[in-house]
Amino acid sequence: MKKMKYKNLEEELEDVNKNGLFIKHIRNPSEAVQLAACKEDSWSIDYIKNPSEAVKLEAVRKNGLSIQFIKNPSKDVQLEAVEEDGYSIEHIKNPSKVIQLEACKQNGYSIEYIKNPSLEVQLEACKYNSDCIQYIKNPEALFKKYPSLCI
Prior knowledge:
Layout: H1 9-18, H2 31-40, H3 53-62, H4 75-84, H5 97-106, H6 119-128, H7 140-145
Helix pairs in contact: 1-2, 2-3, 3-4, 4-5, 5-6
């Protein structure tokens, strides 16, 4: 893919402000250009080599699912992603209990993507919507601890 030659930063910013994905045509974009690209289209992070923490956060704040393009996201990036879209937990390897709880608070159905959720995480999902119980493998333990869920 041929990279464009720009005279200055303003030209780069003008292009990514129109279409963030245009960043793939810019050789060594500055952090300001990367931020502008992710602000316009979070999926543009897929075309950024070694994005800064600020750029990663910008991308997941716009669309939590853009975390799938981030290698080894920090806990802060993970948290921002699931707060924006609980389903983004599907793209997080070994999410902590805090991340699992936040994902279920944002969207209880995200429990479908959590392996072996604790009772606390299961309860959070069911608080969101009792239909989430269908994604819990053995709900008996949950019913035993929280019998009011059966009503």
